[in-house]
Amino acid sequence: MKMSLQDVLFSQGFGTRRICSGLIQQGHVTVGVDGAVCVDPAAVWDTEGLVFSVQGQTWQFQRRAYLMLHKPAGFECSHKPGAHPSVYTLLPAPLRQRAGTAAAGVQAVGRLDQDTTGLLLLSDDGKFIHRLTSPRHHVPKVYEVEVRHPVDDGQLQRLLEGVVLDDDPRPVRAAACERTGERGLRLTLTEGKYHQVKRMVAAAGNRVEGLHRSAMGTVTLPSDLAPGHWRWLTRDEVQALAGGALS
Ligand code: URA
Asked: Cα(30)–Cα(148) distance, rounded to whole angstroms?
């Protein structure tokens, strides 16, 4: 796709068109890996593989944003957090300000509780978010759970056969559940109800003391992505998550 440099910056979240134009005219923008300054906001560039830098911040053009974050404890998955900082503060400003899509900025693909750690996907592609969060698609989410009391067979059986939560008479069951230690469980869920793991474990007769999401759909949290860090999803990861339904 061909785009003016001003629109490139605007689409990637570097401010209003006016601000982007000013940044370019003032010589703050370099284009390409060799880093040549471009001062013409109307100069047209091919966005395929385009790398540029704005005031020293190197950026790779992405038509749509698809990323993973290793969520640390103590952050809320909300743009308007209450008692804790927002996960969005862990992302660079352009990702929060991306324009040109239905909803400005990236959104979390489902939410994790403030005290839950692990894999959080984010995107500005509404269809992708819907594909992964819609109950119709049964996307598996894997949780590593630390519980207060030793896990017994009865608890495992109840989690697999189904427990009734307070907001729905229909039982909810884990798609898979295994013991990972005396007080450890690995639970795979295909729905995304509010506090689902904590409520299911409580209904099965135990209590969650620590919760970490290790996988969602086809993506596993990489061991080299430290808490608080993020990275772009690869094209293959996005395609696999979207079940080939991506434009
Ligand atoms: N279930 C919970 O109880 N909390 C989470 O953060 C995710 C799933």
From this structure: 54
Nearest-CA residue for ligand 1 atom 3 is 195
pTM above 0.85, yes or no: yes
d(CA 42, CA 30): 14
Domain ends where: 60, 79, 108?
Answer: 60
pLDDT in tens, 212-228: 999 999 999 999 999 99
Residue 244: CB partners within 8 Å, gap ≥ 6?
Answer: none
Tell me, what CATH number does 131's domain have? 3.30.70.580
Residue 247, in any domain of the structure:
no
How many domains in the chain? 3
Instruction: Indicate whether 131 and 225 sit together in one domain.
Output: yes
Tens of pLDDT, residue by residue over 133-171, are: 998 899 999 999 999 999 999 999 999 999 999 888 999
Query: Which atom of ligand 1 is found nearest the CA of 141?
Result: 8
Q: Which atom of ligand 1 is nearest to the CA of 192?
A: 8
Active-site residue list? 113
Residues 232 and 110 in one domain: yes
Residues 127 and 90 grouped into a single domain: yes
Residue that the structure tokens 């290793």 belong to:
70
Of all protein residues, whose CA lies closest to atom 7 belonging to ligand 1? 112
List ligand 1's pocket residues with C-beta within 6 A. Answer: 112-113, 116, 195-198, 211
